[in-house]
Write a structure and sequence with these properties.
The protein has 292 residues and is an alpha/beta fold. Helix content is 31%, strand content 21%. It folds into two domains: 147 residues, HAD superfamily/HAD-like (Rossmann fold), CATH 3.40.50; 109 residues, Hypothetical Protein, Haloacid Dehalogenase-like Hydrolase, Chain: A, domain 2 (2-Layer Sandwich).
């Protein structure tokens, strides 16, 4: 079979609710790598955190990070960064909104005001790995300017009242240098204008000279929809919302059931495939991940 490009979201897609990768997924991915296919994780996580996941799978798995702002190609790292003026406007508009604002660099995470309690307890592990607790507070526009050359993308998170995000999103949409998306009803994900997982995939399709028809993507969140549009074969996890599923060309098992491994095993007719009828399984479960 001709060489394919394969992209996998991480949270809610590749990893389970304990942030673990199944042996099934890992085995199938490594089989496909030995066959010459090109595999990426494609995530909203910052590059450093995404790289750890990729390396656990295989040294040959590459990374699209920060919702397409950062991507690897051969030995090079490409990066689009948020405009400093747009970042300052973002701080202004979210300052009194009761929503938390985070900026991400390739390794560091910056937050404005006080670090929310839920983030400290539950979600810090999604953005820092091992001894990497790269979290820094930004208390003023002066401090923002000082780190502006490190800022890649951002996310706005509502802790309890998600209804505050819709009017805020309309305000943020007036900032021309930004693109907005969402991986969960509690957040607004922010990238530079025109940048998304889809833009990174399209660049990589050109570089590898692999067409859309031989591009496969897996996802579960709204921020994966543009990735789906850039892929000839788009696969929604069974734990994805109905809105995400209706934009996919295929469905597979949940992230807890090694949905990626089973779909790819079927699609490429791998020898280990003994699982029948897994492409359209529907299993509903609550979404708890903030960062995908």
């Amino acid at each position: 079979m001709k060489k394919h490009l394969i992209f996998m979201d991480i949270d809610g897609t590749l990893v389970d609710s304990d942030l673990k990768i199944s042996e099934k997924n890992k085995s199938v991915i490594n089989q496909l790598l030995t066959m010459g296919h090109i595999i990426y994780v494609a995530t909203g996580r910052k590059h450093y955190a995404a790289k750890e996941i990729a390396q656990f799978l295989s040294p040959d798995v590459q990374v699209v990070a920060s919702n397409g702002c950062v991507y690897e190609y051969e030995d090079r790292l490409f990066c689009e960064q948020i405009n400093p003026q747009a970042a300052a406007q973002l701080v202004d508009l979210t300052h009194n909104s009761q929503a938390a604002l985070f900026f991400f660099g390739k390794r560091k995470t910056f937050y404005t005001n006080q670090l929310p309690e839920y983030f400290k307890k539950e979600d810090q592990a999604r953005l820092s790995s091992g001894q990497d607790s790269q979290l820094f507070g930004i208390d003023s526009k002066t401090e923002l300017i000082e780190v502006a050359d490190e800022l890649v993308n951002a996310i706005v998170i509502a802790e309890n009242d998600y209804s505050i995000l819709e009017p805020l999103k309309k305000q943020l949409a007036t900032i021309e240098q930004l693109t907005l998306s969402s991986s969960h009803e509690n957040n607004i994900e922010v990238t530079p204008s025109g940048i998304s997982k889809a833009s990174a995939i399209q660049d990589l399709q050109k570089r590898y000279q692999i067409p859309k028809e031989r591009t496969i993507s897996f996802g579960d969140g709204k921020n994966d929809l543009e990735m789906f549009s850039a892929s000839g074969i788009s696969v929604a996890m069974a734990n994805a919302s109905e809105e995400v599923k209706k934009h996919a060309t295929h469905q597979t098992l949940t992230n807890k059931q090694s949905g990626i491994g089973y779909f790819l095993s079927n699609y490429f007719n791998l020898k280990e495939n003994n699982h029948e009828g897994t492409d359209h399984v529907e299993l509903h479960q609550p979404r708890t991940a903030y960062f995908t």
